[in-house]
Amino acid sequence: MLYDLVIKNTIYVNLFTHEMYPAQIAVQSGRIAHVTQPGEAELTGVWEYDAKNKFAVPGLIDTHLHIESSMMTPRYFARALAPRGTTTVCADPHEIANVMGLKGIQYMLQATENLPLRVLILAPSCVPSVPEVETCREPFGGKEIEWILEQPRIAGLGEVMDYPGVVADAPRMQEVLCAGRKAGVFIQGHAPDLTGEELSRYLAAGCESDHETHRVEEALEKLRAGMVLEVRHASNCYDLERLLPLLLRLDCLENITFCTDDTEPGDLVEHGHLDEMIRIAVKGGMDPIDAIKAATVNAARLIRLRDRGSLRPGNLADLLLVSDLHDFRPDEVFLGGELIARGGNMIREDKEEKQSYPNTMLLTTPIRPEDFQVPAHGPSVKLHTIAYNDDNKFVTSLETCEFPVENGCACIGNQADFSLFAVFERHGRNGSRALAPVHRLGLVTGAVATTISHDCHNLFVAGRDPQEMYLAASTLAATGGGIVCVEQGRVVFQLELPLAGLMCDEPPQVMAQKLEQLKEVLSRFGLPGHTPHMMLSSFALAVIPAVRLTDRGLLDTIRQEMIPLYAD
Amino acid sequence: MLYDLVIKNTIYVNLFTHEMYPAQIAVQSGRIAHVTQPGEAELTGVWEYDAKNKFAVPGLIDTHLHIESSMMTPRYFARALAPRGTTTVCADPHEIANVMGLKGIQYMLQATENLPLRVLILAPSCVPSVPEVETCREPFGGKEIEWILEQPRIAGLGEVMDYPGVVADAPRMQEVLCAGRKAGVFIQGHAPDLTGEELSRYLAAGCESDHETHRVEEALEKLRAGMVLEVRHASNCYDLERLLPLLLRLDCLENITFCTDDTEPGDLVEHGHLDEMIRIAVKGGMDPIDAIKAATVNAARLIRLRDRGSLRPGNLADLLLVSDLHDFRPDEVFLGGELIARGGNMIREDKEEKQSYPNTMLLTTPIRPEDFQVPAHGPSVKLHTIAYNDDNKFVTSLETCEFPVENGCACIGNQADFSLFAVFERHGRNGSRALAPVHRLGLVTGAVATTISHDCHNLFVAGRDPQEMYLAASTLAATGGGIVCVEQGRVVFQLELPLAGLMCDEPPQVMAQKLEQLKEVLSRFGLPGHTPHMMLSSFALAVIPAVRLTDRGLLDTIRQEMIPLYAD
């Protein structure tokens, strides 16, 4: 038989028997047709490719990520991943869904067609993350989820973040899970610190996996209970390193997959993607075959993908050639039998072209300077305040602080260690907006406005000077969204993100440079670190303990109750 | 929380982490609600059961068997399996389908409802095994398969035996496989000795597994290619013992399941079922956890059963308590949280009651004495003859033998080492019937008639004396089917099988005794061995090399061409 393609002189990494042996790999119509076993005759192909004794492994599969976190539109995101050997991703578009509703899902489905990366979409299960305490474009209930699950290329239900709702049988989560179970699809979990009988309730409701596990004991409990661990290595979260000691001592790694969740362009460009996870795992002592299986066989099994994850005949001919399994760097990437990348670069770069996107900056009334002032009478006013710990910029608590009053307004940002947060609803829904003092954030100067603000992605502003905050916010409001930094009264950084205020058409290298500039600015402002923009985008996240600001006001995220600004 | 049932003091065999530790198992509404981990508090149940430190494992799952082979109707079959710890079976009803067509499938679906055994049905892919060379009730094409796949409790497409048809893109198999792939269901293979590029074609067509592998090298090739090995231990085939050396040296056993295919009642009563396979595997050196996983986790994965195969919360509460993992004998069997068997016996025996079944003995014309005579002229006649090897009662070859003629008929059965086969179409289709001489079968005396005759289950008769053959056949024809033995001119054994001529309502113990009697009779006739009745039922099987007799006449099973009886 004359095959379309025969890849000769590979060392085949057999993930079924854990053997490696010289083999030829035949491809027909984009699928694996045959992999020779020792002793078989030479195969003949229309195209014959010499693998020069490199290892042949299946293309890598990421079981959980958000394309939006890269701030790149899907086609640019694909360019960053494909040369790294990732050939399939399971993407939860819940960021764009909060901004654009079902239209966002439709957009992601269209925008991920015919890319050099196979993108499966999950139906976002929690839009918004917590109903009734913040405003998104269009909340998803059972009906919306059912509609999404009927679309092509939908892999299941995306991370079920409202685990308290699942455990408590909240009607919204029952509806959403019922739709997922009825469709018989993969239901992806998200259950940090869930334990004991509550963990069992979460599993029994159909949630199969978790990517929020940081601790070895927590990971062991979840695996023992039958959960699949989607071990994460994100730009802002290094669970793989933390969990590796457990992975090394377990006899059974069937229920381990790898995922990246949120990765910024700089990390993609500099460090890579799942290839980096395999390098970290193997360097840490994991058997290369076990590490590769986590990113292939096990991943495909979790997502119910029966046509990939291994080089079984009939599967998609997505495969990598790698020189060294202990320093896993794909030299060649084949997608459907086509050589799409070599030496870490795409073979054929698409021409650069920026597309136009529907405007999602839908403020119902203009932003005014007084939106950044807290009106008050008398010599001072007591306000409820979001307080940070000095050593943890993620968890907050509630403080009641007293501020001097001048000209009918509380003086907040000019007090030592205090700054301000503001949130403006931007989905054309109700024009709600809120302001609150913040203690010990670390912000020393400047103001920053962003439309990347989990999960509803309303317009968020942080700063110390109301005038600078106004300049940042109004500059951003005049665009389709993005990030604006103001320092000493002028705009010093601006990144436009015309797609949903979350993404733009820029290549990974360009985005990496822009975010490097942003980091420098934010560092000067007093927000240092590897991913200050990611931290910034979580300041309004309504599911993190204990106090957050949404467009509706201050929120007790544990009780899910609004807190009045004035403490008197 | 107060659970329906808490099983206390178990040693939980955790198949996810390969650990064992003391645990309590909570059941709610027939499903696993929670399994405690070390350090958890005592659970409380309405019913609390003391496991007395026995090992708790999931109920066992057989991925491939034929209920018909037990000759018992499903409810009696279930009684034999349930006390042995098998809680789910994947049954291919292709025997009854050959006799009753789609009505046979409907019957099996009805008859397997509400049993103490969960029965999933596969759509038989090859009814009849080879079209156009034998007569079944109703051949199945794509349309019939599609109809079956839409019924509830259908697990997929049953063993795709026509592997030459698959490899050669035969239209019937393309239709059938297309229906299976479209439905996205499990497609079970059957591919003895298939190798190399043909094996790859078979896998690429969607066939996932094989239970016909006898040799270690063959098993290794299939596993390397990505096939799932359904390792078999049947009454007439001991593959598990043969393949154990490979299982012991493999690093990865994810793609190994256990199945029993065809088991006779005596073996079920005396030796057991999957529990016996686990005992054999563990005695042979396999790790008990690997052996248990083959019969639970791996089996559920192959058949796409997401609600069993492990004790994950939400799964069906099908579980076993076992005192010794190295001599695996389920002491207690729970099905859906109900204790259904203890100490190898059902807790509650259903009352015995024989049901009535539609008659499937549909001969279009009566059987006559002359049906067992070969008319001939002259002093002798040359006839094409089925010839057995002395040492292999399975494979045949074609011989041309010369027989004396007396009274216008060939003298066959009274020649040394010769006997006769006859086949009568019994499905009310065309009344076809055939007769042929047989060499070296070993039959010394007697005649036997049976309606269990793979795969079309026409009325088959073997004997040496035409009058005895006529007596056996006509006695059987007067019933709804079964087995009749005639010795020295009188009926010495009769087993009625009113359901499709294949099964009857008798408990396993009774059936075991009856078959013991049959074995004694057949042994006297010259057909000794552990399962002579199984050998008997394969004498007309049109897919075994090289010459068989069907209702249409002598068949060259390799070329699939009819052979004339007269060789002149």
Automatic annotation (TrEMBL), chains A, B:
It holds the Pfam family Adenine_deam_C. Transmembrane segments: none annotated. One of its GO terms (molecular function) is adenine deaminase activity. One of its GO terms (biological process) is adenine catabolic process. Its EC number is 3.5.4.2. It is an enzyme of class 3 (hydrolase). Its cofactor is Mn(2+). Keywords: Hydrolase, Manganese. Residues 395-559 form the Adenine deaminase C-terminal domain. Residues 56-339 form the Amidohydrolase-related domain. It catalyses: adenine + H2O + H(+) = hypoxanthine + NH4(+). It comes from the Bacteria. Belongs to the metallo-dependent hydrolases superfamily. Adenine deaminase family. This is Adenine deaminase. It comes from Candidatus Allofournierella pullicola.
